[in-house]
Write a structure and sequence with these properties.
By secondary structure, the chain is an alpha/beta fold. The chain contains 5 helices and 9 strands.
Length: 149
């Protein structure tokens, strides 16, 4: 499935860093920033998370709920949140099923080596569960500004 602006966001259900089940349907009536990233504690993913943290109040003021999602386990998410004082939930997608449903799982290449992975992508979902914006060229150190533009 190729998602685009105006498409309904696929329903997702995943555990957050504390093992609490989170679903997109819980946020109907609120705008959601759902950002997919490859891995906790890597330089670019850390820059992205810290930029969202540093601009969290501005995102809240615009009515956004921020949810990060990667294939990391709950414990790794807990450590990442604690280390960088992240004020938002990180969801686990250890089997990459949610990444596949959102179309952000596929073949990547690094230094000539091909592998399967998550494409760093952010979905902005309106209060009715419709995709309002898809940011595929994420600027990790400036990501909140891309969302708030």
């Amino acid at each position: 499935m190729h998602l685009q602006k105006g498409s309904p966001a696929p329903e997702l259900s995943a555990k957050n860093q504390n093992g609490v089940e989170v679903s997109l349907s819980h946020y109907i009536g609120r705008k959601v920033v759902l950002y997919f990233y490859p891995k906790d504690n890597t330089p670019t993913c850390t820059a992205e998370a810290c930029n969202l943290r540093d601009n969290y109040q501005a995102l809240l003021a615009q009515g956004y709920v921020v949810l990060g999602i990667s294939a990391d386990k709950q414990k790794t998410h807990q450590n990442f949140i604690k280390k960088y004082d992240l004020p938002f939930d990180l969801l686990t997608d250890t089997d990459n099923e949610i990444a596949k449903a959102f179309g952000v799982w596929g073949e990547k290449q690094l230094y000539g080596r091909k592998y399967m992975g998550v494409f760093r992508t952010t979905f902005i979902i309106d209060s009715n569960g419709i995709i309002e914006e898809i940011i595929e060229k994420v600027e990790s150190k400036n990501h909140a500004q891309q969302i708030l533009k």
